[in-house]
Design brief:
The structure holds two protein chains of two kinds. By secondary structure, chain A is mainly α. In chain A, 75% of the residues lie in helices and 2% in strands. Among the domains of chain A are: 265 residues, no CATH class; 69 residues, no CATH class. In chain A, strands 1-2 form a two-stranded antiparallel ribbon. Chain A has a two-stranded parallel ribbon with strand order 3-4. Chain B has a two-stranded antiparallel ribbon. Chain B is mainly alpha-helical. Classes of the chains: A mainly alpha, B mainly alpha.
């Protein structure tokens, strides 16, 4: 089998590669499910083998020149069509890299835990479905793989949560709504061109039917990427799901998929015009996401929840970049997507290592871990510097590109984005100091040691990525820029940002965040409460209180609406039933009782009936004459 | 023409065989069960045999002249064979399931006779070329349905069986008047001879009453949730295989193929369907009886089928047919799962259940597979059906219908998840129950797996539905 595979890969047969990327993970997924719990190393081997094969195939696909394949499938043009080209190849490669890194991490993390078989099963299915969604060249095929991820998402969140399935339900409902909107968007888009083939659609205008089509497609993509208002299941999932789920799906794969589609919708299928109404609308979604999720991240007391809110906030930056419809925004967004996946996966994994050793991610129970887990701690710091956008690290360069694009559209968006950087930096200073510095504190201090090597390896690789993508940002940018050659022309965005003013403003913001942290720390004496002066500020306090009670969660409101609506419908239904069960019976029995009174056996009454009948007939006859 | 025997076997083996079963049952109950299954499988196998010829473009036709210029006959075109296959496939699994379910109840002779007769009347109905014959089989099915709903004989239960009978027969009588007015207009009851005629609005409305009452659509639907008092295989049969599908089939046969309609009906029928889908989805959210919830779900999904068939686009119509198949498989599975749950816990109230996935793992997985299919989530079969219906609506004369049904689809996800989670997850309420008998568990497993395969190998069913729609609409 291996030799057959290698010959397929070296021959550069695109169609064969596509099948490898979709079918092999599925087969191996079932294998991982079947292997009994006692043979854990067997399960682990299957997982690594599958992700390695996938990785090799992805490299081969990335190197393959443009290929399309088509097979008849469901009739009415719903052909099983795939297309390898620069963007899909690039995205598939990203998926493969992160799948491999998270797989290595999960093997160590899931050992001795219940549900590892299920976890690996859903993991590999997710890889296959994500590959299919990216490579699809037919809208229905894309939707097939894309929506299929709902099943694995639901499965992931049910692992070990049989008695508390709330988060799984919430995730499935929210993502299901997004996917149904995507379905509607596809229907409206396809209607305009009459073709389901994705490469046959380009440059539609965002007006009339196109407005609805664009809007629904974008909402579907935003839902996958986890932007507001489709975000609220992610912090809950951070607490409930097995930890490797977070770097895997919300951390990287869902972002790749969501942003892949967002970019294709805005720059390929539709022609989003810079500063048009729809462009501003998308940017507003991005800005609101940055602001609100950043503000929520600030006050979290749990590492995983804090990281989850920050992750949502980072999506806001990417959406902001895409929404500008400018080349610099596009490159910034795609570059930021890569950087985001790198540092956010790294951060989630370090949080996982902390949880693995201490058994908790509650920051009030942790402290000083840098002394006992130096590698994890250093990687955490590097990734934090990258996410805060400290000059020199990866996040800095992609954020500057997005700032550039935002400023070009309107200074308000720029101001919000910069304020978002302040929120992120403040929450990281708080988390970093509380968990990794100060006195060593954990539920089990005496047993603490560094995480196992299999968990350290991916963390270190990703941390190195945070530095390399910053210092040598031409490496990723020279991969990304050719994909969008037709949009950006020969412009090269690598190297140091061209606007010194913007860089200085960013640095000042970071400085303010540090000063704010020192002020809060001095005031309360504890790193964890360093932002309490913001949290408990007069008006903010009540807003935060409401948010903690989920008054700001769109899902809670949706459920209220559904409930009211359901009771109204139930009332209508019961009223209809009452008509049949009660009213109709009453009418029938009333009529029949009257008729019975008429037939009481008295001859004189029958005489009256007979004569009046005859009279009626005669009158009718006369009238007709 | 060759192969006319096939149709006769398909119709009359279950129809006549049904009356043999009580006699056999007096002697050997086991043999009666096997014979019942055999009769239904015969119907399925013969339908499959008839398929190639139906798809070849020269369908099997048998006609007989009767006095007074009447004709009667059977006609196995793609639509008829497709419906026959769908019904008899699901019905076979349901009969097999009954072996385990009905084992401990009295009146089994009547049960098997009525079930097989029910399926025989369905077979007769789909192949009929004559409106009167359709009416005849329609009423046979109503009688079977009446006896089967009242199977447990409680006073309240019999009342509900009466309700179902009265509502469907009431609708059928109105439909009969409609048929007669069609006869007055065209001078024939023969479907093949009246193709392409335009019928009056009055006749259309009367026939629609019959169809909507049989296919439980607002406001003629309330008998269907009430029929949940029947044994679970019977409800499964009503919802998935036979009864409600009769109305949908006749709709497709008459209004998709035979009659030209005023374009206004392309909007009126979808709107009725949409209101029905949305209201019943809301009711499903409130109900706490597991079988009533699934019943409201059927009413809601029937709305999608009607939408597909009536929105006036080819993709929509093909989607509607595909929906019939996928919904039959999945909904049949859901009811059979509900039957296992009800058998094990002795309650139908979902608030009194929880955590059953630990004790009924296969049932839980089968329920999940079927529920995903009804929700329209890939890779399950329901996905394609739902997409095609929505796409059909979006490209019809009134695209806003698609938005209405997207809301219905969201509601479907919410209420089915609610049942699934309440019953199978949370705190375990019945620690000492176990899975149903092997016949029951394997039946639900088969239906769950078929729902999945139906999506992955969509090319097979969709080839048939595409062919049907293309050949019917290009007449």
């Amino acid at each position: 089998m291996i030799s057959g595979l290698s010959s397929l890969i070296t021959s550069g047969n695109g169609a064969g590669l596509i099948w490898i990327m979709i079918v092999i993970p599925v087969i191996l997924a079932f294998l991982a499910l079947i292997i009994p719990k006692t043979a854990y190393s067997g399960r682990a081997t299957v997982l690594v083998l599958a992700t390695v094969i996938n990785f090799i195939a992805a490299i081969a696909i990335f190197c393959t020149k443009e290929t399309t394949m088509l097979m008849p499938w469901a009739g009415f043009e719903m052909n099983l069509a795939f297309r390898i080209y620069s963007f899909s190849g690039f995205t598939v490669l990203l998926i493969a890299v992160f799948a491999l890194l998270v797989a290595i991490y999960s093997i160590a993390f899931m050992r001795n835990r219940n549900g590892s078989g299920q976890f690996f099963f859903y993991f590999l299915l997710t890889v296959a479905l994500a590959n299919g969604a990216v490579l699809a060249n037919n809208f229905v095929v894309m939707l097939f793989f894309w929506e299929g991820l709902l099943v694995t998402l639901f499965g992931f969140l049910l692992i070990n949560q049989h008695s508390k399935p709330k988060t799984a339900v919430k995730a499935l409902i929210i993502s299901g709504i997004a996917d149904l909107l995507l379905m509607l968007g596809i229907a409206f888009t396809v209607f305009q061109t009459g073709s389901l083939s994705m490469d046959a659609i380009s440059g539609l205008s965002v007006s009339g039917m196109g407005l609805f089509g664009y809007l629904c497609l974008m909402l579907g993509a935003l839902g996958k990427a986890g932007a507001m208002p489709f975000h609220s299941w992610i912090p809950d999932a951070a607490q409930d799901a097995p930890l490797p789920f977070m770097p895997f799906l919300p951390g990287s794969l869902e972002k790749f998929l969501g942003i892949y589609l967002m970019v294709r919708v805005s720059y390929e299928f539709y022609q989003l015009v810079p500063a048009s109404g729809m462009s501003i609308a998308v940017m507003i979604i991005g800005a609101v996401t940055i602001l609100l999720a950043g503000a929520m991240a600030l006050i979290q007391k749990d590492m995983k929840r804090l990281l989850a809110y920050q992750e949502i906030s980072q999506v806001g930056f990417i959406v902001l970049g895409v929404g500008t419809a400018l080349p610099v925004g596009l490159i910034g967004a795609v570059f930021h997507m890569l950087n985001h996946a790198t540092y956010k996966s790294c951060l989630f994994m370090t949080a996982g290592s902390v949880e693995y050793r201490t058994g908790t991610t509650d920051m009030s129970k942790l402290g000083g871990l840098m002394k006992v887990m130096p590698v994890t701690g250093i990687c955490f710091v590097i990734a934090s510097l990258a996410i805060c956008g400290v000059p020199g690290f990866s996040g800095f360069f992609s954020k500057e590109l997005i700032f550039d694009a935002a400023l070009e559209t309107n200074w308000i968006f720029y101001a919000i984005a910069v304020f978002g950087v302040f929120l992120i930096a403040a929450s990281f200073l708080k988390m970093g100091q509380a968990v990794f510095f100060g006195k060593v504190k954990a539920p089990n201090v005496s047993m603490l040691k560094e995480a196992p090597p299999a968990m350290q390896l991916p963390v270190v690789i990703l941390a190195i990525g945070c530095i390399v993508f910053g210092v040598c940002n031409f490496i990723p940018l020279h991969l990304i820029q050719p994909i969008f050659g037709s949009i950006i022309g020969n412009h090269d965005f690598s190297g140091w940002p061209h606007s010194a003013t913007l860089v200085i403003i960013s640095c000042v913001i970071l400085l303010i965040a540090v000063l704010n942290h020192i002020y809060g720390y001095k005031k309360t004496g504890a790193a964890l409460s360093a932002v309490d002066h913001i949290h408990y500020a007069p008006v903010l306090h009540s807003i935060y209180n409401g948010a903690e009670k989920r008054y700001t969660d769109p899902y809670s409101w949706l459920m209220v609406v559904v409930k009211i609506y359901s009771y109204i419908c139930f009332g209508i239904d019961r009223a209809i039933n009452w008509f049949y069960d009660v009213l109709l019976v009453k009418i029938v029995s009333f009529v029949s009782s009257r008729l019975r009174m008429a037939n009481n056996g008295s001859p004189s009454r029958y005489m009256v009936w007979s004569f009046s009948g005859i009279a009626f007939i005669i009158m009718l006859f006369i009238a007709l004459m | 023409m060759e192969g006319q025997g096939i149709i006769f076997v398909c119709i009359f083996v279950p129809l006549i065989g049904a009356f043999l079963l009580p006699i056999v049952g007096r002697v050997m109950p086991r043999l009666r069960n096997i014979l019942a299954l055999l009769f239904v499988i015969t119907a399925f196998v013969t339908a499959v045999i008839a398929l190639p010829q139906a798809l070849s473009g020269t369908p099997i036709l048998w006609q007989m002249k009767l006095p007074l210029g009447f004709t009667m006959g059977f006609f196995a075109d793609g639509l008829a064979v497709f419906m026959a296959m769908t019904s008899s496939l699901v019905a076979s699994i349901i009969v097999f399931y009954s072996f385990g379910y009905i084992e401990h109840y009295p009146n089994q002779n009547e049960y098997y006779m009525m079930v097989v007769l029910f399926i025989g009347s369905m077979m007769g109905l789909v192949y009929s070329t004559n409106l009167l014959l359709i009416y005849l089989f329609w009423e046979i099915s109503a009688i079977c349905c009446w006896r089967l709903i009242g199977f447990y004989r409680g006073k309240d239960i019999v009342l509900r069986a009466d309700k179902a009978f009265l509502m469907t027969v009431g609708g059928a009588l109105l439909m009969l008047i409609g048929f007669i007015s069609v006869y007055m207009q065209t001078g024939t009851f023969n479907l093949l001879e009246m193709q392409g005629n335009t019928i009056t609005t009055a006749a259309m409305v009367l026939i629609l009453f019959g169809i909507l009452s049989k296919s439980a659509t607002l406001p003629l639907h309330t008998w269907l949730p009430d029929a949940g008092v029947a044994p679970s295989p019977v409800t499964s049969l009503l919802h998935a295989a036979v009864l409600v599908k009769i109305g949908v089939y006749v709709f497709a046969r008459l209004f998709l193929v035979n009659f030209q309609l005023d374009p206004v009906w392309d909007t009126v029928v979808p709107v009725i369907a949409g209101v029905s889908a949305l209201v019943s989805a809301g009711a499903a959210m409130v109900e706490t009886d597991i079988k009533r919830i699934i019943a409201y779900s059927t009413i809601s999904q029937l709305g999608f089928i009607f939408l597909g068939l009536s929105c006036g686009t080819m993709v929509g119509a093909a989607g509607g047919l595909l929906y019939i198949l996928m919904h039959s498989l999945a909904k049949g599975g859901l009811f059979l799962c509900a039957g296992i749950v009800e058998h094990s816990t002795h309650t139908k109230d979902i608030n009194k259940m929880g955590g059953l996935a630990k004790r009924l793992p296969i049932t839980a997985v089968a329920f999940a597979l079927c529920a995903f299919s009804v929700m329209g989530i890939p890779p399950f079969g329901g996905f394609f059906a739902k997409y095609m219906v929505i796409y059909g609506a979006a490209t019809s004369a009134s695209p806003w219908l698609a938005v209405m049904f997207i809301i219905g689809a969201v509601m479907t996800i919410i209420y089915l998840l609610r049942v699934f989670i309440k019953v199978f997850f949370g705190e375990l309420t019945h620690p000492d129950i176990k899975e149903g008998s092997w016949e029951m568990v394997s039946s639900v497993a088969i239906l769950g797996v078929l729902s999945l395969l139906g999506g992955i190998f969509i090319n097979l069913p969709s080839y048939v539905t595409t062919f049907i729609i293309e050949s019917l609409l290009n007449l």
